[in-house]
Design brief:
Length: 278
Amino acid sequence: MKLWMMLLVLLLHLVVCVCLPAPSKVSISSLNMEHTLSFLPGPGTPPDARFTVQVLRLRKSQWRLLAACAQLTAGQKCNLTRAFKDRYEQYQARVQAFTFSQTSNWTVSEKFLPLTDTVLGPPDVSLSGCGDCLLLRLGAPIAMEISPTYRVHVQRTRDGVQFNLSLPYKEETVITYLQPGVEYCVTVSIWSVFNKNTVSSAPHCAFTSRPPSRSSYVVMLGLLAAVCALGLLLILLHFYGLQGFNVLRKCISTTLSYIRLPCQCGGGVPIEPQRRLC
């Protein structure tokens, strides 16, 4: 009878024995207060194995099962954002593999403090010119109990001259005392007393005021010439009547002849027209 009891105890031990490989590389990553647990199956873990996750709040010293991460498959991740609600509290997580008849040892993560261990990613940035200034627009800040400071790095594209600003959060900030018509590039990062894990935004570049194109200069000169000609015409008409108009027409013809003759003579000295025309 004792032999049968020993065999039964041995069989039960084999059924519930810890035989599966323990998960490996259990780690917690976090970006802007969004926390994620990742892991890898241990070598030799069967394909049908599942994984369960428990979290520990160090003040309470009691492991708690996460229902949303109770039956993960290999390659799945576990969202710990709701479980790590207190950003001033330290947490740990652990992962165990299991099948219908087997379990593995637990693999425990490093300690994690949300406030200091999350990565403060780059804010949303847009930039536009406003004459001799730049208008900087920032997206909504991360939901932190203490508002972070934004560090703004400004660099002039033409010669590399640069400077830094520390600004409180505002939806719109004007960066003043810049050269008009010059391109500047701006990068922005979040800075906090409690967290040095920051990532800067990509450079955003803009002209303080849009530089006029060559065609714009031509149009402006053309309009200026037209206004001057119209003004001169009105003066001549006022003082000389139609005779003044004829004088203006002869003057324009004379001026055009000066412009055309060098081209016709291959760059030689133009023939001087009669001075009596105007």
